[in-house]
Amino acid sequence: MKPWMRVALAMFAVGWGANQFSPLLLVYRRGGAVSESAVTMAFGAYALGLIPALLAVPIARRCGQVRTMRAVLALSAVASLILVVGGERIWALVLGRLLAGVASGAAFGPGTAWVKELSDGDAPGAGARRAAMALSVGFGGGPLVAGALAQWLSAPEVVPYLVHIGLTACVAPLVWNAPTGVTSATGHDEAGLRGLGAIFGHRGFRFQVAPTAPLVFGAATTSLAVLPALVPPHGPSVAASGGLAGLTLASGAAAQPLARRMSKRSHHAIRHWGLAAGTVGFLLGAVTIRLHDPVVLIPAAITLGACYGLLMVAGLSRVEALAAPNELAGAAAVFYCLSYLGFAAPYLVTAVGHWVPPAVPLICAACVVAALIPATALVRAPDSGSGPSAGRGRSVRRGTEGPAGTPTVRRESHPDPAWERKTSCA
Questions:
Q1: How many other C-beta atoms lie within 10 A of the C-beta of residue 56?
Q2: Distance CA 165, CA 177 (A)
Q3: Is pLDDT at 181 greater than 70 in this prediction?
Q4: Taking phi first (over 0 means left), then psi (-120 to 50 degrees means alpha), and beta for anything else, what does residue 292 get?
């Protein structure tokens, strides 16, 4: 097994545990022991736990990538164990979801950087696509299996979580002694912290990545939590809800290989197609609510899932292109934290729904997403290169014009001497 696959499997297992809760929302709501608002609060507690993603970068560098991922896998399993033991107690639901968020936040940023480091030598952007694929398959597999188990097996509040604990136990030995990346061996503890703020120095991140990052999970949670709650599927609703979540995230995973072809044309193409898919998806969601027809949930889930997948690859690829190697983990953590803002989508739709029909927020979201296509395309960032690999590991600026009016590219000094030696030998 290739080294990067071991890390990707760990991210897959954590992503599975993060999203297995989605189809079980109907189970807890029907049980009656927990109010609907309490269930929604438990779902959102996951987003609060994601905040430590910003703190996980220096911890991963100080403790090592392997030790950090071991602890993350253990914490993910403990979160599921609390959900098993707690049953329908609100404190257990909130605590379990909170710990699942902590595990996700601590895994995704450093894990993405680790996969990228182990993918050096492959095609540009391969690390970002592999990390995004691992997360998408985990995010999709968790609710798909959990929904089926909760629908047709007894103890629906227990069995799905036991499956995740077993999955984590199988994955842990594979990552237990996985090889570390070069940055882990040569970087400094301050490098991760530097990456948290350094990425905001790039206009391409501020005006192209940051505005679209919340749509990554904003589109996904709209399909996972908002639409099934407003238009419940017919038949075995719990399994159908899990299948809808699986379809959403499987569409995101299926769209990601297409991103490689799009990136050959322009690094803007992935983002533009993702925004276009989001515009269509939100409009289809509004049509679903207006007609109250569960059949329309299927195309809405596919397009919203494609938006999720394409914008995740677009964001991670751009971060990988802009950040220096020893700052990549921190920069990826910043991107994930911005994308986590999308978990507020169910709350926004619910809150605004008290005053306007629930389809209106989705129509407004479609208009905003559509406006982002020309708005982000108009940004001509000085640090923007011609492809996914432009600017990787260095700061690139347009300098003075050389002979025949050709702009020269000035490479600035990098704080990491190891990186300077590496680039000087290239």
A1: 26
A2: 20
A3: no
A4: left
C-alpha 25, offset from chain centre? 21
Residue type, 53: A
**Which long-range contacts (C-beta less than 8 Å, at least 24 apart) are formed by 35-38?**
38/90, 38/93
d(CA 340, CA 316): 14
Tokens describing residue 1 = 């097994």
User: Angle at which helices 328-340 and 53-63 pack, to 10 degrees?
Assistant: 150
The pLDDT > 90 percentage for the chain reads 32
* 47-79 tens-digit pLDDT: 888 876 666 667 777 777 888 899 999 999 999
Tell me the average pLDDT across 334-343: 87
- Check pLDDT > 90 for residue 377: no
* Buried b / exposed e along 127-141 (16+ C-beta atoms within 10 A): bbbbbbbbbbbbbbb
- Nearest Cα neighbor of 4 from 118, 168, 172 is 118
- What's the pLDDT tens digit per position in 234-285? 778 888 888 898 899 889 888 877 877 777 677 688 999 999 999 999 999 9
Instruction: Quote the pLDDT of residue 173.
Output: 92
Question: What phi, psi does 397 have (nearest 5°)?
Answer: -135, 150
Give the pLDDT score at 290: 92
What's the pLDDT tens digit per position in 199-216? 788 888 888 999 999 999
User: Please, what is the average pLDDT of the chain?
Assistant: 80
Residue 195, pLDDT score: 57
Contacts of residue 350, Cβ cutoff 8 Å, sequence gap at least 6: 40
146, 147, 153, 159: CA torsion to nearest 10: 20
Model pTM score: 0.77
